[in-house]
Amino acid sequence: MIAARAANRAMIVFAVFSLAAIAAGCVAMAQSGVPAGSWLRNPMAWLVGALLASGLFFIERPQATLARLLLLLAAGGLAATLVFPDQDGVHRWIDIGPLHVNAAALLLPAAVAALALVGIASKTGLAAAIAIAALLLAQPDASQMIGFALATAILFFRSPTRSVRAAGVAAATVLAAAAWLRPDPLQPVAEVEG
Q1: Strands (DSSP E) found in the chain
Q2: pLDDT by residue (tens digit) across 76-104?
Q3: CA–CA distance, 42 with 37 (Å, rounded to integer)
Q4: Nearest residue to 25 via CA among 192, 148, 180
Q5: What is the pLDDT of residues 1-36, one digit of tens each?
Q6: 83 — phi, psi (to 5°)?
Q7: Do 71 and 124 meet the contact criterion of CB atoms below 8 Å apart?
């Protein structure tokens, strides 16, 4: 019961802060004159991610099974970006009909919630976290990798085992640094860089 309350509180805190970040980005893009069709994808992706993540806590099926499916979906979606055409060697997007979607932005919120549910230090959690991190580095996507590394560091920090906590936080820090130091070949986009 206490673990469920803590998980619900963590999910609410994550939802509030991630929505605030999305809202700030949308306001900045709207003020920069970016067409609404470009920035409206962000809150829509947040909503889809929030619905997928909340499904972990409110669905009647065994939550661990749903969490594993969401982790598989996240890894599969990120892997699918490598199949779709690249942009200057960067693979971050999948095309679904007329939609051009950043898979990580759509799938990582639910994946983080799923990792919290299955336990990031479990075999399933570790395998999924490693696969997702490797795919983010392969895309490459520094912003999503750093966000994912921060979320996994928080999950590892909650581990009762000191060695797991230290190794997990160290690994997340190294991955974030690797993503940050890898040059991004894409040219700056005015609504992002400005």
Answers
A1: 93-96, 99-102
A2: 888 988 888 777 777 777 877 777 778 88
A3: 10
A4: 192
A5: 565 666 667 677 777 888 888 888 888 888 888 787
A6: -90, -35
A7: yes
